[in-house]
C-alpha cells in the first residue's frame, strides 16, 4: 500500500470514536453540530456494527447511522468490525483505529469516559487512547504517515463525574434529537425489548433533561459535558472561558 497523504483523502478537525452506532448521537452529537457550525470538519468512527443489539439488524443500523451523520453534518462516518458487546483492547484493534487516525488526521479526538456501565464504552476509552498514542509512532507501519492527535477529550454524559467543561448545544438540541431518532429500529415503539427500552415519547424528555442539567452547570440552557485529563495552559487570564459569577 502506498503512503496516504492527507490531501489524498478526507481529513477531519474533530473525530468522535464510540463503541456503538448511536453512542455519539447521545453523548456529543450537539457538540459535533456546534463544531460544524464553526466551520470545523467533523467525523465519526463507530467500532462495532450493532449485530448484538436486541432490536434491529446491523444493516438497519448502518442505514440509520448514515441518516444520523447527515443530520449531524459530519463529513465522514464509518464502522469497524469489532465484536459488539466484546470489544477488546488488542494490538490488532489498535492498528485498525490507527489506520483511520492516519487517514483523517484529526486535531481533537472525542472518546467515551473511562468508567461506564457498558463494558464496551469503558474499553473504548483505553483502546482509543492507546490507538492515538501508537498512531504517532513511526515504527508502527501501516503505509501512512504517523499522526498523533493534539488533544483527547472524554464525553462524560453517562458518568457520575464533574465535567472539566461543557459545550453549549442550546441552538442544536432539536437537531441532536432528530439524529438520535434516526435510529428508528432502536427507539421507535415496538414489542421487541419493550421492557428494556425507554418509550419513544420519553426519550426527548430524558435526553433534554440531561442536557439541561449540564447546561445549568455552565449557565446556558442545554450542554454536553466533557472531561479532559491534562491541565489547561493559560496565556491570558481574561480569555479563560468560564461563566460569569
Ligand atoms: Zn453504546
Principal-axes geometry comes out as: globular
Our estimate of the beta-strand percent is 15-25%
Q: Would you list the SSEs in sequence order as H and E? A: EHHEHEHEHEEHHHE
User: How large, in whole angstroms, is the Cα Rg?
Assistant: 18 Å
Query: Regions with pLDDT < 50 over 5+ consecutive residues?
Result: 1-8
Helical residues, percent: 25-40%
Continuous helix count: 8
Chain-averaged pLDDT: 92
β-strand number: 7
The bound ligands are: zinc ion
The secondary-structure class comes to alpha/beta
Identify the strand order in the major beta sheet: 3-2-1-4-5-7-6
Q: Main beta sheet, described?
A: 7 strands, mixed
End-to-end separation: 56 Å
Describe this structure in words.
The chain contains eight helices and seven strands, in the order βααβαβαβαββαααβ. By secondary structure, it is of the alpha/beta class. Strands 3-2-1-4-5-7-6 form a seven-stranded mixed beta sheet, with helices on both faces. Helix 3 links the parallel strand 2 (42-48) and strand 3. Helix 3 (58-72) packs antiparallel against helix 6 and helix 4 (91-104) crosses helix 5. The longest helix has 19 residues, at 200-218. The termini are far apart. The model is unreliable at 1-8 (pLDDT under 50). The site of zinc ion has 5 residues, from loops.
Amino acid at each position: 500500500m502506498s503512503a496516504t497523504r492527507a490531501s489524498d483523502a478526507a481529513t477531519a478537525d474533530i473525530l468522535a470514536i464510540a463503541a456503538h452506532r448511536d453512542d455519539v448521537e447521545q453523548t456529543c452529537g450537539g457538540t459535533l453540530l456546534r463544531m460544524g457550525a464553526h466551520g470545523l470538519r467533523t467525523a465519526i468512527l463507530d467500532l462495532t456494527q450493532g449485530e448484538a443489539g436486541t432490536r434491529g439488524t446491523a444493516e438497519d443500523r448502518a442505514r440509520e447511522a448514515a441518516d444520523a451523520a447527515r443530520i449531524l453534518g459530519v463529513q465522514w462516518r464509518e464502522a469497524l468490525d469489532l465484536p459488539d458487546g466484546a470489544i477488546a483492547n488488542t494490538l490488532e484493534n489498535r492498528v485498525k483505529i490507527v489506520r483511520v487516525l492516519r487517514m483523517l488526521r484529526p486535531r481533537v479526538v472525542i472518546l467515551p469516559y473511562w468508567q461506564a456501565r457498558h463494558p464496551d464504552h469503558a474499553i473504548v476509552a483505553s483502546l482509543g487512547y492507546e490507538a492515538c498514542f501508537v498512531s504517532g509512532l513511526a515504527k508502527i507501519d501501516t503505509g501512512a504517515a504517523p499522526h498523533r492527535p493534539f488533544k483527547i477529550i472524554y464525553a462524560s454524559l453517562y458518568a457520575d463525574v464533574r465535567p472539566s467543561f461543557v459545550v453549549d448545544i442550546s441552538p442544536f438540541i432539536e437537531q441532536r434529537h432528530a439524529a438520535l431518532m434516526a435510529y428508528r429500529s432502536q427507539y421507535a415503539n415496538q414489542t421487541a425489548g419493550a421492557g428494556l427500552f425507554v418509550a419513544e415519547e420519553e426519550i426527548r424528555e430524558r435526553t433534554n433533561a440531561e442536557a439541561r442539567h449540564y447546561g445549568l452547570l455552565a449557565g446556558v440552557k442545554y450542554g454536553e459535558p466533557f472531561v479532559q485529563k491534562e491541565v489547561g495552559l493559560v496565556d491570558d487570564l481574561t480569555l479563560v472561558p468560564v461563566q460569569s459569577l
